[in-house]
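User: Fold this; tokens only.

Assistant: Input:
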Amino acid sequence: MKTALITGGTRGIGKAIALAFLQRGYEVVLNYCNNEAAALATQEEFNMQGYCPVLLRANVSEEEQVKTMFKDFFSIYERLDVLVNNAGVSLVKVIQDTSLKDWNRIFDVNVKSTFLCSRAVTDKMVFAGGGAIINVSSIWGEVGASCEVAYSASKGAVIAFTKALAKELAPSNVRVNCVSPGVIDTEMNSHLSASEMEELENSVPMGRIGLPSEVAEACLMLAESSYITGEVLSVGGGFGK
């Protein structure tokens, strides 16, 4: 049976990705960081649907915690077929109000975690004869967003990381791709007012906000396609194009 580990996998897009892989028959490990009660609630929700995901707690921007998480993972499973680097945070501030601490936190969670987790599994995937790494970026990483300079820069870095690592690992049959969500109905957009959400919705050519499950579908496709690597797949109904 195939395995998948999703960072930030107990809420929002990560939770939807986890469900998609569980429904496809994968053994799924959900990484979370701080909110154990919410993680346990998500696990129980999946249990009630007949699925049994494993929870592993780690701050994936901390090197030693990442090492411990994957040591625990490989004590349970022989191989990892799919890594989804989904953990991320946002920041809405004009550049004058963005502190160095803000900048470092955004890059730690959104970029450093992607590097640390990918590095931690590369040898295992190469030795196993292949695997898939899927990184979650954002449409703002492609086109940039006013008042979200730090966030946009971090997600742009994830895209560049994806393209470079895909070339590096392609000879070993490890595929590295990226999904780039547009405006998706998650808690990350909770700072927006109803009028702001309506304005965004009207900017989407397909005329509606996207669902986490639609991002999950894209991740599953990239995980199971044998000849796609180095791609950035936008999932946003044409938004930002």
